[in-house]
Amino acid sequence: MTVIGEADTAESGASAARDLRPDVMLVDVGLPDLDGISLAHELSILPWGPRIVLTSVDPDAASPDEVTRSGATGFIPKHELPGRGIQLMQNGA
């Protein structure tokens, strides 16, 4: 997969999604301006049908029912995301 955009708020994420039209979006449940579950619902009904994956540092941040209702494909805790080790090494942690 290739990263084509990044956003730090729901508002900027929704705008970037409309502009960039990604096939897949990784959405954090804990956004500062709107919860990621609500954003996932908004993004899942976009005309091109992107796949949405919710994530959080809290492995219990989204129940299976919340994931389904949001229109997301699934939920992955951040510690289980692929490439996490590479990102930590690049950041010097």
Description:
There is one protein chain. With 93 residues, this protein is of the alpha/beta class. The protein has a single domain, classed as Response regulator (Rossmann fold, 3-Layer(aba) Sandwich), CATH 3.40.50. The chain has four helices and three strands; from the N terminus they run H-E-H-E-H-E-H. The chain has helices at residues 10-20, 36-44, 64-70, 84-90; strands at residues 24-28, 51-56, 74-77. A three-stranded parallel sheet has the order 1-2-3, with helices on one face. Strand 1, helix 2 (36-44) and strand 2 form a beta-alpha-beta unit. The chain is globular, with a radius of gyration of 13 Å. The two termini are 24 Å apart. Mean pLDDT is 89; it is low at 85-93.
Short key terms for the protein model shown above:
93 residues, 4 helices, 3 strands, Rossmann fold, single chain, alpha/beta
| CATH fold field value | Rossmann fold
CATH architecture: 3-Layer(aba) Sandwich
- Estimated structural class: alpha/beta
Mean pLDDT rating: 89
CATH class: Alpha Beta
Distance between the termini: 24 Å
Count of individual helical segments: 4
Percentage of residues assigned to helices: 25-40%
